[in-house]
């Protein structure tokens, strides 16, 4: 039997947002590999082995997936959201480097927390936007600050992943300072926590009123561009620039 690796996105949290393609891949899998809380979303069944591991071991997970596939296993690597957005797809291809033999690899997209948050609020990403991971685990924080500053100066809407954690309590405050130096105080900023889950919470404030403790690792932060506005209870960015 020929093995394969399928890297999938489980969406932002609501099981109804898992795609049919992903469900089909999981139904065929002999092994599922991923971060502990994501593997916990997969129902056990006969013939399926679940391999859950802690955070920050992405390359180890990717290597295990490739090795199992080359041994004939049908391996699904699970991520939240979309596997190609700050998730496991890149790690799997990084683990491919230097190998002379590779299994078949497929990446199946999922709905990102960023897009789910935007949909819950209205359309704050309706014009040009960028996504920035605020974690400095794999890059210096000075690079993050530079990217945020340049994106603000270019008037992009911005979506921030991993804004604030117990090990990084001060970084988001630094990002707010960068934004305040480049954006008007009335710029809209949206905090979306536990998107699509029963305890989802969406809060939109002016930049002047944003505080670092409004974000944590379960929060996606969306900063509007200079034209982003409210219409009734919704927030949207017009399709035309200027």
Please outline the helices and strands.
Elements (H helix, E strand, L loop, with lengths): L3 E6 L10 H9 L2 E5 H4 L9 E5 L4 H13 L3 E6 L8 H9 L7 E5 L4 H9 E2 L5 E5 L7 H13 L3 E5 L9 H12 L5 E6 L7 E6 L12 E5 L5 E3 L2 E3 L6
Describe the protein:
The protein is α/β, with parallel strands linked by helices and 242 residues long. The protein folds into two domains: 4-111, Cobalt-precorrin-4 Transmethylase, domain 1 (3-Layer(aba) Sandwich); 114-236, Methyltransferase, Cobalt-precorrin-4 Transmethylase, Domain 2. It has seven helices and 13 strands. It has helices at residues 20-28, 36-39, 58-70, 88-96, 113-121, 141-153, 171-182, and strands at residues 4-9, 31-35, 49-53, 74-79, 104-108, 122-123, 129-133, 157-161, 188-193, 201-206, 219-223, 229-231, 234-236. The strands form three sheets. It has a five-stranded parallel β-sheet, with helices on both faces. A five-stranded mixed β-sheet has the order 7-8-11-9-10, sandwiched between helices. A hairpin with a 7-residue loop joins β9 and β10.
E-strand count:
13
How large is the count of helical segments? 7
Tell me the overall shape. elongated
Instruction: Give the helix/strand class.
Output: alpha/beta
Largest sheet properties: 5 strands, parallel
Number of domains: 2
| CATH topology label of the largest domain | Methyltransferase, Cobalt-precorrin-4 Transmethylase, Domain 2
Rounded to an integer in angstroms, the radius of gyration calculated over CA atoms is 19 Å
């Amino acid at each position: 039997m020929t093995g394969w690796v399928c890297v999938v996105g489980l969406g932002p949290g609501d099981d109804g947002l898992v795609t049919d393609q992903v469900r089909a891949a999981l139904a065929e899998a002999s092994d599922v590999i991923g971060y502990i809380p994501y593997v916990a979303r997969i129902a056990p069944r006969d013939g399926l082995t679940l391999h859950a591991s802690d955070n920050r071991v992405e390359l180890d997970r990717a290597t295990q997936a490739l090795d199992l596939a080359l041994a004939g296993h049908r391996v699904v690597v699970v991520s939240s959201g979309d596997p190609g957005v700050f998730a496991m797809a890149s790690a799997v291809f990084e683990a491919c480097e230097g190998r002379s033999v590779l299994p078949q690899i497929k990446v199946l997209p999922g709905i990102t927390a960023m897009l789910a948050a935007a949909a819950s609020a209205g359309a704050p990403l309706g014009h040009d936007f960028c996504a920035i991971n605020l974690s400095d685990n794999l890059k210096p924080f000075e690079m993050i600050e530079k990217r945020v500053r340049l994106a603000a100066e270019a008037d992009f809407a911005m979506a921030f992943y991993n804004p604030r954690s117990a090990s990084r309590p001060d970084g988001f405050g630094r990002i707010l300072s960068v934004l305040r130096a480049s954006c008007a105080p009335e710029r809209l900023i949206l905090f979306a926590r536990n998107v699509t889950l029963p305890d989802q919470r969406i809060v939109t404030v002016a930049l002047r009123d944003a505080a670092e403790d409004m974000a944590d690792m379960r929060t996606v932060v969306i900063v509007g561009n200079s034209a982003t506005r409210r219409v009734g209870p919704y927030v949207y960015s017009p399709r035309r620039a200027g």
